[in-house]
Each structure stands twice: as C-alpha cells, then as structure tokens.
Amino acid sequence: MVDRSGGTSLARLGLVEPWAEPTLEKLGWWADENPAPGAEEIMWALARSPDPHLALRTVERLADAAPQWSTIDTELRADIGLRARLFALTGSSTALGDHLVTHPDRWALLADGPDRNDPPPDLARRTANLLRAVGADPDAPLAGAPGGSVATLTGAEAVAALRTAYRDELLGLAAADLAAVGDASLPVMEVDDVACQLADLALAALRACLAVAVAEFDPGPDARFTVIAMGKTGGCELNYVSDVDVVFVAEPADQTATRIASRMMRVAGEACFEVDANLRPEGRQGALVRTLEGHESYYRRWAKTWEFQALLKARPAAGDPQLGQAYLDTVSPMVWKAAERDDFVPDVQAMRRRVEEHVRPDHAERELKLGRGGLRDVEFAVQLLQLVHGRTDEEIRSPSTLTALEALARRGYIGRDDGANLAASYRFLRLLEHRLQLQRMRRTHLLPAEDDVEALRWLARAARLRHDGRRDVVGVLLDEWHRNARRVRRLHEKLFYRPLLESVSRLPADAVRMSAEAATARLAALGWASPEGALNHLRALTSGVSRAAQIQHTLLPVLLEDLADSPDPDRGLLSYRKVSEALAQTPWYLRLLRDEGAVAQRLMRLLGTSLLVPDLLVRAPEVLRLLASPTAGRPDELTRDPADVAASLRTTVGRQLGMTSAVGTARSLRRHELLRVACADLLGLLSVEAVCEALSSVWCAVLAATLDAAVKERSAEGPAPARLAVIGMGRLGGAELGYGSDADVLFVCDPVEGVDDSAAVRWATQVVESVRRGLGSPSPDPALVVDADLRPEGRQGPLVRTLRSYREYYARWAEVWEAQALLRARPIAGDADLGKRFVELVDPIRYPADGLPAASVTEIRRIKARVDVERLPRGADRSTHTKLGLGGLADVEWTAQLLQLQHAGDLPELRTTSTLEALREAAHAGLLTDDDVAALTAGWTIATRARNAVMLVKGKPGDQLPRSGRELAAVASALGYPPGGDPGVFLDDYRRTTRRSRAVVERVFYGG
C-alpha cells in the first residue's frame, strides 16, 4: 500500500465504511507505523473480495468465535491460498460465511483447498463422508440394495448431522470455486467442473438420506429400492441451490417403499435441498414409487415426448445399482425412438411455449434461465438435436449439456465455431447463476436490476470481471450479459437450420457438412411433412454464387425457425420460394427481409398459414413494406382508416384517362388493400367487424370509382341522359363483406328532364355493363363479381330500372322475401340524391308500419327451412358449415331480419343494415335479452371469422370448415389459437358457440 495515513488508502481498497479501520486495527491488520508481517498481503486479498465490507464483518465474527484464531491469523499471513479462499468466500456468500462462523474449526477446509494438479474430490469420498455423518458404514453396499448399510442416526439427530456435513462439503467446494476470485494466480475451476461436483455431492446426500429412511422403515432383506437422478443432477450439471429431480423404483413397490421415498425426501429437504419427484409417470397424480415393470408399461403406452426428453438425463443416484441400471436399460431404447412419434413436433413446440410462458414480463430482460438467450435456449436446443440424431449416433447421447454440445460439433451436426461459442456463453451464464445463488444460498436466476449498481458491482467482482479502461465493472457485466444472451439466441436459431443449408450449399472442402439423411431427419423432426421437398426448396434458394443466394443463406436459418412454428411449414417454404422467385428482380425485397426483422417474422407466419397472401403478394409486393414494426407515435401501417383508403382509391382512379386504365388501377388498388387487410387480420391487428368494414369499403370505392370512369367515358358522346345510383345489398349493404363475397347490388336510374325512361334505361344499362365487364374480366385475384340477382324478377328482370319502375313493382308485386332483402339496402355509389330517394322509396316496404302479418312470418320460416335443406351441399357437416350450419351466419342474420320486419316500423332504432347493430338495438328495445344477444353475436362472429379464415388459408372461398389436418390447424391459427396446439380445441369452441346461438334461433326465429 502506498499511503499508510488512513482513509485514502482504505478507500483505494474499497473499504469506505467508518467502522472498517477500527475493525482492521482490532484484527491487527492495520497500523500507521510498523505493520505486522503479512498484514499488507491480507489487506490486498481483502480488497479483491467481491464485497470487502461483508468479508471483513464475517472474519471479525469468525475471530470472535474461533478459539484458534491466532493460528488462523498466522496461516492467513503466510498462505496465499487460504487468504484468497477465505476472503472470496466470505465476500461472496453470507450463508456459507455464517456456517463458517458457527463451526470455526471448519477453516481447515479452506486451508486444504485443492491445487490445480490435484484430482477433484470424487463421489466415493463425498459419499463416505456423508454416510459417516449419519452413522452408516461407507464400506458396505448402499442402502436400498439387499444387505445395504443403514444409518445409526435417525430423526432430527440424523437431519442435524447431515445438514452440517453437507454444508461442510459445500463450503470446501465453494472455497475452491472462488479461489481465483481472491487471487488470480490460483487455479480457476471451470463452471462445468463445479456443476458436476455439485451433482456428485447431491448424489452422496441422496445416499445418506436413503440410509436414514431405510433405517426408519425396514423394507425387508429382499427388497430392492433405487433412486434415479433426473434433470441437472442426472446431467452432472447442478447449481448451488436447486431442486433435485428424482424418480423412485422399487421391488416391490409397496407401502413400505412409498414411506421410504417420502421420508427420504423430507430428510433431504430439511438437511440439504428440496427433492422433486414430479417427473415420475403421471406427475403429481401418479404413484410416488413404481416397479420396473410399472415404469416400462407407462412409458410404452402413455408417456409424452417431453417425458422422454427428461429421461435424456436419467442416471442411477442411490440405492440398488443393479436395479438402477436395469431401469436405464429399459427406458433408453424408448428415449431414442421418441423423435419418430407422430406428435413429436407439437409436443416439442408445446414445451417451448411452456418455457416462455414461465417468464414474468417484468423479468424477461433479466432472466438467466428461462428468458430469450438464456440457459434453457441452450439446453433445449441440445436436447432436441440429441433426440433427432441420437437415434443412430450413440456418441451424442451424453446427459451433460456441454459434453453433448461438444459431441454434436465433433460429429458435424453443428459447426465447430458455433459449438464452441455456445459452450462459452453457456458457461458464462451458469457462472452468473452460481454466484447469484451462492450469495444467500437461495434459488434464483434473476440478475439485479440495472439501477441496482451495488448488486451488479458485487456480481461482476464475484464473476471475476474487471473494468477495461473504457467501462467500469458494472458496464462490463451488463455488456457481457447482453452479448452472451444475443449470441445464445442467435446460435439457438442456427443450431437447427444452418447445417441444413450447409448440406445443400457449396462449401469449402474442410467445412462440416451434414449428410442428406441427417438433414432430412432434422427437417422431419422440426415439422416438415415432406423433408425431401423442403431440401429441394433450400437448394433452389441458396444455389449459385449470386448476392441473392448469399443473402438467402443468411436469412433462412431465422426464417426456417419461424416457419417451423407455423401451421404448415411445407406450404410456407414453398410459398416463400415462389415469392422469392417472383420478386427476384425487385431490388429491395431481400434487403428488406434482412434488415427488418419484424417483416421477415411476420411474413413467415403469413406464408405458413395462408395461400391467399402469397398469391396476392407476388402482384402487390409493395405491401411487404407495411409489415415493418410501427414506429413510436405512428400507428401500424396495416391498420389504415377505411374512409381514408376509399377516398385515396377514388382519387387515384379518377386521374386515369379512359375506362381500361381506370379499371386496371382500381383492380390493382383493390389487390393492394385486400392483401393489406388479410395481413392485418392474420396478425391479429383487426377485429372481425373492422375486417368486414374494410373489405366492404374497398368494394364500394372500387364500384364508385369504376362507375365514375364509365360515366365519364360515356359523357364524351354527349350529356348523360340519366342519373345512376348503385344500391348495396346483402353483406355489401350491411358492410359485412368477407374475402370471397360477391357484391350484391341493385342499379337504379332516373332520366333527366326531357329524356324518356327507355332511353335513360338503355344508357344506364350500357354504363353498368361496361362496369361489370371491366371488373369481371379474368384475373388471378379473387373474383370481382357484381351480382344483381336480387333485383325485381331476378335474372329475368331488367338489369337497370328507373326509380318509378321500382316504385310500381314494389307496390304491386313485392313479396316478403324481397322486403327482407331490402333490409340491407343502402346507397354505395353513383348519384347520392338518387340513392337517398331510393331509400325513402323502400323504407315503407322493409319497415312496414303495421308490422308483419302472421302469414308472412310463416312464409319467412318456410323459405328459411327450404334454403337450409336445398342449398346445403351434399355431405356437408351442418355443425361446422359457417353459412348454413346450425347457429351460423344465416341463422343469426335471418333472426335479426325477422325482428326488423316485425318491429322496425314502430322502432326507428332497428332501422340499420348491420346485423350486429340490429341485435344490439333489439336488446335495448326489450325484444331480446342480453344473453340472447351475446349468444347470437358470438355465433355470428365466430362463423364470420371462420369463413374468412377458410378463404385466407385455402386461397378460395369456402363455407365448410376443414375436418382435420393442417388446413384445420391453419384455420385455428388464423383465428388466434396457439400454433402447434390441438385444432380440435377450436372445433369444440366453434360447435359450443354455435349450439348456444342455435338455441336462441330456435326460440326467437322459429318460436320454439
């Protein structure tokens, strides 16, 4: 030390508390003049402690408690290893510091710490120490085997003795682990060595606990009992503080065996750690102990994929070693066939979701274990690769994550650099986890908050991090944490997909390359039904030496992971190839996917779900730019206001010269908007009402703009002889249009002064035919069908009528079904005043002042029954037919319309073209209960959403839900159900919702 004059020097050593100097003087380590030999070395060792103040307080307590303190003090001055271990330990762990103060004679465990060249303490030595602590013979067979040794201490006495012995072992191991923190010249214990020794210590403790339990419940001379370690204990990679996962096997698995298992778990929980047996067959609901035959029967018949994944780490821990080995011999063949199961991919995906769901949102950025880029990412990736490729390669079957990772790299399943980088990051994350748990011997995986500078500084020093001149030690820690988390996540994505690309790409001769068989196996395991076809797509995308191929090679690992989570990865990859080939000459396409992660992620979800999206995308690629994440203060570009869209469309079309150009522009803009709405719908950004409103608004704008262009073109021949209006009917009139809906309309004209009706109708018909021909011409887009079949006299009647003709027809000939159809009538294009007059004309017809006669009600019910029978396709399932099925669209709409015909004459609030609005107003008027409206609304909503989803998924209109398979899974995913989940849940929800809707229809519409 340079300055012996007091506070300044202590501050340089990190000792700033006012009590530090008196405490140092009391211990004889601080003096203004003539310091004692070795004191300066002690001070520097203390300064290197993660928390010098905590270390000093603990050592002061040790000096007060230890009769042999003078001996300890002498050794500290002379022994660099003891100094480093003592101060690093007491500055890192309050719990172990307390243990040392309680048992001061244990200081010798620190003086005798292992040297770099000494072999680490082995399992046999630790087992003997803990067995002796409970009075069991370490030289006899293990308890649980016939003739095995049992403890002479039982009850609370055994627990107390075992607790002390276990903490002694932990103290010595932690001191050796922390030695390099106290002095950089001492050997560093790798985190995997520490984890393996902790796992061995757990096995030794389990054996001692079993010896106590067997002593308390004698199982008989021939009974056999074994404990199988699972999880991190089985994988020889345990934390300082962790549950120890186990499975119990016994012959016989009787009541005594169950008592032994229960008592062993209680002894371990009170003395050492919690024992968790929930990985046993049937989990918490299953028997605690089973025979070997019982385990085999369960795993052959009932086990899920995640249970075989857990068995990857199984190893005998305590009890009869022969029975333990027999257990492994029984389950191992089943483990390595798990990837062949039909439900392998859904189970793996479900497990991934469960892991992510365990993370609290406010902890996501600090979670070492379960967060993105955390320990689980590494472990899950390694285990999945083992399950896929370990079927034929025994060299990668290690239960240890790091050993398996090294084997995967050595055998070529992942790149060597990737394997080394992932292992380095895994070790770093485990080191932080170990240090956090050591502090108070509590189970935690959460980094301190970024504003907790003192806690972060302590953790950084405990993890052997130092400032680098540019950043202080806290900055170094945070940067290292974020860098390693990002690297883990990136490599997690690469582990599955990069080797697939390497297997189909041109590589240097010395590069690691997967075989085609291995690549096919991995794609099959990750969810591709046709892995050979997927490989062909990858070859096509990455072949050659062009810049596009290089970008694809960079993009595809991430894109494939997103596709693997979609309902149909095969179709998604094919669609991606088609889109990429179609946009090969679009310079910004691949650059956008590369630079905008949200665009690529959203696109894969869309392509893996929908056939309509890629069909439209190749002709409207500009919509891709709208998939970018919204910026601060700006809404998502996918959710534009329908009124703004309609106004922009009409303005753009209105600038065109000539009908052909106007129609082409209108169709192009409609394609753009159809794709935009479809993307927003599939991404969950729009409600079903907003989707219907947007689609209806686009259709109306297209009709209005095209009609304006047609009138403008005809005006070149002279002034228009008539005013013309388009009346929206059906779902168009109700603003409830779907992706595949036709545009139901009526055309009405009114001659200008001096023009007779026939000339006006002739001119108007020519304009309408021009519009219909233009919009209806062949196109790969969804059809633009302008359907006028709801006009008077149907297809046999004139296409266009004058307003007077409509008045005469409805006055003389209108039937009840026509009044019902007019409930949806609203002007959507053409002359606004004429449209208003048409509405005034039909209001008395659709809203009869005296209500609906009983005979008309009966007629409506008769027509509805006939429609249900005659129009339902042969073989259709009425429980899942969205339009004509029970409780579906027709049921709800006819019910609402019947109420309007009966009551809208007296209740003006019922005069709406919207089905849902009519239902809400019927409830306000007391015609329906709130429960009735909720049931009908739910039925209409789920049927509309499902009908739209069928169009999105299949790329063509359809009213029947798929019965099973990937199309059903895609429909469920499009409706917001979890990807990879059981689509049967959606079908159950659909049937349940429509059954409730149908019950209301039966009562309200049919009068049941």
UniProtKB/TrEMBL annotation:
Keywords: ATP-binding, Magnesium, Multifunctional enzyme, Nucleotide-binding, Nucleotidyltransferase, Transferase. Coiled coil: none annotated. The keyword Cytoplasm does not apply. Residues 350-496, 864-1004 form the PII-uridylyltransferase/Glutamine-synthetase adenylyltransferase domain. It is an enzyme of class 2 (transferase). One of its GO terms (molecular function) is [glutamate-ammonia-ligase] adenylyltransferase activity. One of its GO terms (biological process) is regulation of glutamine family amino acid metabolic process. GO terms for cellular component: cytosol. Its EC number is 2.7.7.89, 2.7.7.42. Residues 1-500 are annotated as: Adenylyl removase. Its cofactor is Mg(2+). It catalyses: [glutamine synthetase]-L-tyrosine + ATP = [glutamine synthetase]-O(4)-(5'-adenylyl)-L-tyrosine + diphosphate; [glutamine synthetase]-O(4)-(5'-adenylyl)-L-tyrosine + phosphate = [glutamine synthetase]-L-tyrosine + ADP. It comes from the Bacteria. The keyword Cell division does not apply. Residues 156-328, 601-839 form the Glutamate-ammonia ligase adenylyltransferase repeated domain. Residues 508-1008 are annotated as: Adenylyl transferase. Belongs to the GlnE family. Involved in the regulation of glutamine synthetase GlnA, a key enzyme in the process to assimilate ammonia. When cellular nitrogen levels are high, the C-terminal adenylyl transferase (AT) inactivates GlnA by covalent transfer of an adenylyl group from ATP to specific tyrosine residue of GlnA, thus reducing its activity. Conversely, when nitrogen levels are low, the N-terminal adenylyl removase (AR) activates GlnA by removing the adenylyl group by phosphorolysis, increasing its activity. This is Bifunctional glutamine synthetase adenylyltransferase/adenylyl-removing enzyme. The gene is glnE.
